[in-house]
Amino acid sequence: MSKMPKRRPARAVIEPVSPVVDGGRFPSKAALGEPVVVTADVFGEGHDAIDAAVRWRHAPVVGDAGPWVQVPMQFVVNDRWTALFVPTELGRHQYEIIAWSDHVESWRHGTERKAEAGVDIGVELLDGERITDQLLATAKKAKPRIDDDVETLERLLAAIRDGEAEVLHDEAWPRLSHRYIDRKPAAASAKFDVDVDPERARFSAWYEFFPRSPWSGDAPTDEHATLRDAIDRLDRVEAMGFDVLYLPPIHPIGEVNRKGRNNTTEASPDDVGSPWGISDHYAVHPELGTVDDVTALATAARERGIELALDIAFQCTPDHVWVDEHPDWFKHRADGTIQYAENPPKKYQDIYPIDFETDDWEALWTELANVIRFWIDRGVTIFRVDNPHTKAFPFWEWALGSIRADHPETIFLAEAFTRPRVMERLAKIGFNQSYTYFTWRRSAWELREYFTDLSTRTVDYYRPNAWPNTPDILTDQLQHGGRPVFAVRAVLAATLSANWGIYGPAFEVVEQRAIRPGSEEYLDSEKYQTRQWDLDTPDSLEPLITKLNRIRGDQPALRHLSTLRFHDVDSDGLLCFTKTDPLGEGDPILVIVNLNGYEPHSGHVHVDPSTFGLGIGDDDEFVLEDLLGGGIYRWRGWHNYVELSPGRTGYAHVFAVRPADR
Prior knowledge:
Helix content: 25-40%
Radius of gyration: 30 Å
Number of helices: 14
Largest sheet: 8 strands, parallel
Strand order of the largest sheet: 20-19-18-13-12-11-22-21
Oligomer: single chain
């Protein structure tokens, strides 16, 4: 038998709250300047009115929590309520929903109905006098006192005493009731956490290159370029519109079992090896420079509005110091040798994976976290983490949580191309961004299905970063589609996702040679050798990439994922979607892409004009400016014709939508 409550319970009910991740086990994610939209079903029994509010505060993992800030919730439909708040500090935040019986609104609504029915409301006005007098007394004692509210309540009270029924329709009632009503007893939800990250966690453009490979236009250099040469490349990265520069591992490369060109197991004396064959996590490869050069590069990048991202690859070569000092950190085979990495039929004899089941796990965890802190102290705030799904989840939850408690400005990108639930778990336990399956999603239905899931089911914690290529991934589509497919994939990545990146200069110069048919490995891959890149090829995609990043920077709608909506098109060769800014800033964006790029496709697109939030009616004309290809178009209503033909109308339209009279 249930026990009698010790206090009279609140009559309000608060049911499914959002954003909540796994019932509150993990924090949801937000970024500076990004609204946190809170929703819940809030209701009570009978016909009495209910009111609700969201309370939120900065509640850092380390340090004291800030004061609660209260935001009124707005009724939407069918007992659904919503409110938003915009965090202005990095780090952990909390929010909760409170709800209570709104006796003021219940009185006002009931009295209005009686008055409309011609029923005498003399007694009801007496009730209103008592209720309003209580509100007035509370308003006079409020700190800080709002004199305008006191004056308004005095005016309403006088009107009620004079028997003026029109006072029931005064627009001030909801605001005054929300501020001064006696809420006891109030219902309250659980408190839920939100991690607020830098804006680049939500919206960023990444550019990756191997600093050891020389470019045309570099200062005179030998075969192996340096981190100082990388500083000279920053102007080009900035001009292309990228705000994150990501370098593969810059550490010393082991000598034992070093890989040769094209991943051969026999290295010649002049082979440079794979940067992921790390022999010292606290040092820089001598031919690249020094630790001080990393700080200089990070500083020079930041002066241009770019953040430097380094690779965190927790694996060791056989000649790594940890192998001698901590052999128990590695898994041993039955013959006593240490197990090297394998992904049959691939073998990585130059890499020893770390054994997270070691009995010395506490020392291991501490050492690995110290590696990250070492580079943070040298000015690096962003890290791309190699294969985090092959390391222990509990380690990442502890390491990222403790590091971000001290350094909430840091961002971690999970390079994990693995099972969906594993990728999602990494996001839940602390990774700010995640690689995606975008690289292999090609058809309209695949892209719609995948990005609908990313923008709805997982949007509160999983931030996708879409890459058309990586040093490990050259899809058959890129191998055989040529420049048109490279262009299309760039448009899709840059507009579907708020975060995107490319491995360059391979991408912009349309590097499409695979080591063999059926492989996604590059021929003469930079993973195993230096490459001399000629940036002045006539078919370079640099102008297109620059324009895409400029459009992204100019259009607030493209900085978000949660407002992504797909729309029907008559042709399977076309993909159509829209984005809007959650705070209503800038223009709505309508994107239509020819998915293969080298054949013409046409058809009618079917878009409800109300999607744009501009008050455009079903039969109204509206204007579209093509930000990518140029030109002004005038459309009307739901159904409009589009043709995208390479060489004539281009690969895609990126439209800014405006009312016809603006």
